[in-house]
Write a structure and sequence with these properties.
heterodimer, A: 5-stranded antiparallel β-sheet, B: about 375 residues, alpha+beta, 5-stranded antiparallel β-sheet
């Protein structure tokens, strides 16, 4: 049964929350005509060739062709597009630059893909208040560029040249500098949102009331679309020192990390690579990494000059104390670039070692590293597939790369299974199924490994408060599809509320 | 209030809450009660659920810089344990009489202190949470690792929710290393147009300050900048030079600065007068100070964050409302009961955001029994 929200019979509860079934479905042609009227026909794509680009995001093995892709040019066009979808009862998926690694922007065949790439204006730069206001399609790097050289925007996912701030908000993106500087959620201070019924909501970090802004960041496009975003930026560190240390094995590199953290040092970045990822990265970049070692550790200390210098010397001593075979301190910006070049190439470089690979994203309590790597080794041997490990060592975010050959019968499936086993190991060791890539479609089957049914049901309450019809990115995050029931029982209005008490303070 | 219950397990807490939900009887959650007067004056609840026996520090994973604490743990006790490992929860609000404030209360009110400048507030330090809802559900969100994006971040929703969504049973937090040394740069000015630009310059300098506060009263005030680390002295001297160049007087560096910051924290409470928390962009700080002077208010402020605490005569509160810049958000915290029941401490709030908050409330507390009436918009 379908009914239109406009005829909702229960005025006491907001219109959009009353319906547990979706409104009337319009025909595809009707809908695209209406979308074209809003955004211009050139910004509504329906031809299969034009839609080819949009069939998947950064996780290419999930593909789906949407009814249409629409590219609104302003926040108000986004609102009208969403409202049109609501009136037609058509679900939608929002997409930024499409670099996500969990299939979060995978289209749905019976839905509309709302592409935010045209909303790329930087609306204001207010360095006196250390903030910038941007549209969702602005790239991550553009934010840091516009506030340079005095300030910077710390979250720096490796796709930062192309990935969009809107996508970063959906995924609560991290990067290599999270251990010291935090995540996207720590930097968003204001949002203009379009909810799935077309309502526009303004949220500010300082508003009294529930932290809806905090709940929205990281919600993977399931609560609405952010159309205007205020970000906090911070003073750029005046000094950066980077070192590269080589170790016999990951155990001793792990001990160096423990030593650094125990000494109360908070590096801007600590990255670990194992033997296989070093080999791949070195072959790809010729950055000068040693190939006779079991692990490499990049430690970067940034901040005020005096503190940086003291801490950097301590880190060198701690690495040596943990048995480093060699410690190289970058003496110039060029040397620093070279150290990072290999690390940044690590994922792509696996192509030299293996025809194909899955990038996994799990988190473990950092102190469980040795045990987890031992278990990954055992799984690797059991499956007969190589696994390379790249690790954000400060915050325990592990990126195992599971290598396979797609031409070999059954190997992709086994590789996928192995990648899944690794995630389960992370959860068993007290960690998480995802540290920065998100749940999307890729990890939703693993949610029950981390959360019980009551936990998932509590998540669903939030989703239903924002999107009771399930029109915003349905089929993502939750392991099984679920609907929003009506709120049981009447809402009890407090007498003060009923009295319409409006006196300020 | 007809009954007070102090559950010893999560299940017991959930059971009691579910019973209240089924009967439709209003429940108030209570830790040490140091902020019991905050919020709107709601209907007197028939049941008080106390967290006093949920007071275990379940985990302190020093190597992972995380901890799991039940809601009734006094923050001071947790800090003492973290300090033994050279760590801290970077949350330093005033803790009330006998430092009794509990984690649950601090988190439910999203209270904070001077360290908010560097480490953010409650929302930035809580990485997971276990809550009980009024239908008896016990739900966990987040995790025990500092980096985690699985599932919705319900802890953010419950932080600062004043007990209106459910009962916080336990929280997972991220810890930070306790800095080996800290010193504080001080300076004074008798012109807000001199003081405020210095604060802005310090906030924009790459000094990694721990805290950046001002104190202001009657057209005169000072600035405090905490510098910590392995060797903070040289950096403090740089900050002091900047402060002096920009026109502050009596610039000094205090090695023994604990009492200075204790005084700042104390300024976030008022025993006999009214205390209003004002949030405005840092560039509006001169306007906030001007309004404070006009109303005879004493100000303690987080100059980099843009949050100020104004203590003033309760009778001057309506005047303050007129004097403050329109974009400043204000919340009445401490105040005599007459003032709190005569006016909405949250300020009137309307529009789609409030409507969305009501929807959230209805979903999480469909029975409407969790601390009804104390929150924004009468929620």
């Amino acid at each position: 049964m379908a009914r239109s929200p406009a005829h909702d019979p229960l005025p006491a509860i907001p219109i959009s929350e009353q319906l547990s079934d979706t409104p009337a479905v319009a025909t595809g042609e009707d809908l695209t005509a209406r979308l074209a009227a809003i955004c211009g026909p050139e910004h509504v794509l329906t031809h299969p060739d034009a839609l080819a680009t949009y069939r998947s995001d950064g996780l290419g093995h999930y593909r789906q062709t949407p009814l249409a892709a629409v590219l609104p040019g302003t926040g108000d066009e986004v609102r009208r597009v969403v409202q049109t979808c609501f009136e037609a009862g058509v679900p939608w998926v929002a997409r930024g630059s499409g670099t996500g690694l969990s299939g979060g922007a995978l289209p749905i065949s019976e839905g509309v893909l709302i592409v935010l790439a045209r909303l790329r204006r930087i609306l204001s730069v207010e360095l006196d208040d250390a903030r910038v206001v941007v549209e969702p399609g602005v790239t991550n790097l553009a934010v840091s560029r516009v506030v340079a050289p005095t300030h910077f925007y710390p979250p720096d996912p490796s796709s930062q040249v192309v990935c969009s701030i809107g996508g970063n908000i959906a995924e609560n993106s991290g990067g290599a500098h999270c251990f010291k500087y935090g995540f996207t959620t720590n930097y968003v201070t204001g949002l203009e949102l379009v909810l799935s019924d077309g309502t526009v909501v303004e949220l500010d970090r300082d508003d009294p009331g529930y932290d809806l802004l905090g709940a929205f960041v990281g919600s993977e496009g399931t609560l609405g679309i952010a159309t205007r975003i205020t970000l906090r930026v911070i003073p750029a560190p005046e000094h950066v020192r980077t070192l590269l240390a080589f170790f016999e094995d990951t155990v001793s590199a792990g001990e160096a990390v423990t030593g650094i953290v125990s000494a109360g040092i908070v590096p801007g970045a600590i990255e670990m690579m194992d033997r296989l990822s070093i080999r791949a990265a070195e072959e790809a970049t010729g950055a000068g990494y040693r190939l006779d070692v079991g692990a490499a550790l990049i430690v970067e200390i940034d901040g005020p000059e005096e503190e940086c210098t003291t801490r950097f010397e301590q880190v060198k001593t701690l690495c040596t104390g943990a048995g480093a075979l060699e410690v190289r301190a970058a003496a110039s910006a060029a040397e620093r670039e070279l150290i990072w070049k290999a690390r940044k190439a690590a994922f792509a470089a696996m192509g030299r070692i293996s025809p194909a690979y899955f990038v996994q994203d799990g988190v473990i309590p950092r102190t469980r590293l040795s045990e987890v790597l031992r278990r990954i080794d055992a799984l690797s041997a059991e499956y007969g597939l190589q696994v390379a490990n790249v690790f954000h060592a400060g915050d325990g975010n592990l990126h195992p790369l599971v290598c396979y050959d797609g031409a070999r019968e059954g190997e992709p499936e086994r590789a996928e299974q192995l990648a899944g086993e690794i995630v389960r190991v992370c959860v068993e060791e007290g960690g998480s199924i995802t540290g920065e890539h998100g749940v999307g479609v890729d990890k939703k089957a693993f949610m029950p490994a981390m959360f019980s049914e009551p936990d998932l049901e509590a998540f669903q309450r939030l989703r239903c408060a924002f999107d009771p019809h399930g029109l915003a990115n349905p089929g993502k995050v939750m392991p099984t599809p679920r609907l929003c029931g009506e709120v049981p029982g009447p809402y009890r209005e407090h007498p003060l509320e009923r009295a319409g008490l409006a006196t300020r303070l | 209030l007809s009954e007070a219950v102090e559950p010893t397990t999560f299940e017991e807490a959930a059971y009691v809450l579910a019973s209240a939900g089924a009967n439709g009887s209003a429940v108030r959650f209570c830790g040490a009660g140091t902020k019991a007067g905050w919020g709107a004056v709601g209907a007197e609840p028939s049941l008080e659920l106390r967290t006093g026996s949920l007071d275990r520090i379940a985990e302190h994973n020093a190597g992972d810089l995380t901890a799991v604490l039940e809601a009734g743990v006094p923050l001071a006790r947790a800090q003492a344990q973290f300090a033994e490992a050279g760590q801290m929860l970077a949350l330093d609000p005033p803790l009330g009489p006998d430092d009794a404030a509990t984690l649950g209360g601090v988190i439910a009110t999203a209270d904070s202190g001077p360290l908010r400048h560097r480490y953010g507030g409650v929302r930035d330090l809580v990485i997971g949470m276990t809550v009980a809802l009024s239908d008896g559900t016990v739900a966990r969100s987040g995790g025990r690792v500092i980096k985690n994006v699985a599932g919705y971040d319900l802890a953010k929703l419950f932080a600062g929710s004043f007990g209106t969504l459910g009962m916080i049973l336990s929280v997972n937090v991220r810890l930070h290393p306790r800095p080996p040394r800290r010193v504080t740069v001080l300076g004074v000015a008798s012109d807000r147009e001199v003081l405020c630009p210095v604060a802005r310059a310090l906030a924009a300098a790459p000094l990694e300050l721990d805290a950046l506060d001002i104190a202001w009263r009657g057209g005169r005030g000072g600035l405090l900048a905490a510098v910590s680390g392995a060797d903070p002295r040289a950096r403090a001297e740089r900050a002091a030079r900047l402060t002096e160049e920009k026109g502050l007087e009596q610039v000094d560096i205090a090695d023994d600065d604990e009492s200075l910051w204790a005084r700042q924290r104390a300024g976030q409470r008022s025993a006999n007068a009214a205390l209003v928390r004002v949030a405005a962009p840092p560039s509006l700080l001169p306007e906030v100070l001007r309004a404070a002077d006009a109303c005879g208010a004493t100000v303690i402020g987080r100059a980099g964050v843009g949050t100020s605490y104004l203590e003033l005569d309760p009778e001057s509160v309506p005047r303050l409302e007129e004097e403050l810049p329109a974009s400043a958000r204000r919340v009445l915290l401490d105040a005599p009961a007459e003032l709190r029941s005569a006016a909405d401490p949250w300020g009137a709030r309307n529009g789609p955001a409030l409507e969305l908050m009501r929807r959230v409330k209805r979903r999480f507390d469909p029975a409407g029994v969790c601390n009804p009436g104390v929150f924004v918009g009468g929620i």
